[in-house]
Amino acid sequence: MSPFLGELLGTMILIILGDGVVANVLLAKSKGENAGWMVITSGWAFAVMAGVFTAIAFGSDAAHINPAVTIGFAVRDGDWSNVAPFIVAQLIGAFIGAVIVWLAYLGHWKETSDPGLKLAVFSTGPAIRNTTSNIITEVIGTFVLLFGVHAIFAGGVSDALGPFLVGALVWGIGLSLGGPTGYAINPARDLGPRIAHFLLPIAGKGDSDWGYAWIPVVAPIVGGILAGVVLLLF
Known about the structure:
10 helices; single chain; Glycerol uptake facilitator protein; mainly alpha
């Protein structure tokens, strides 16, 4: 048990369930094919809840499972000691989780003709590709995430209740702000699985859209830093 292991396994569970629900909805001949946005946002909410519980259980009381949260709260608290190891653990966990999703849906990749849907299982993409607006959306979503997480735990909620409330917060972000970019709000969530998409022998896959890939990494970090600064000031 250690904070590194907790962040790794928590992020792995986040991606198994999060990317897993996207695969269920998007891949051909899946039982959940075409189930829609409500199923995806609900699945991601449960994924965050389970990821946070897992991180805590395996040694990370912080349970960030998100580099933007790690960096934002480092700004708020002035403690940068966990930033590098947490981010490494989160990226490794996200990559492993994506590989597991690929294995879980192994028979469905060749049945799905659209390579864009296959990429969407692993990483986010914009509904309307506009660099400025895509960045703004991700910054706002991540700001709300950190602001909301801070508000939840500032109220002194227990470890048993906190993950449920964080999951509900992410559900709300997905429903309200997820439309323009698919609400990455987590650099590891997007980058780790995108690397997996690039490396795995996925039947009929296209490119990994590296031209867009920097936005769901940089913009959430900016949003996290802004939230950390605001929380520090208040």
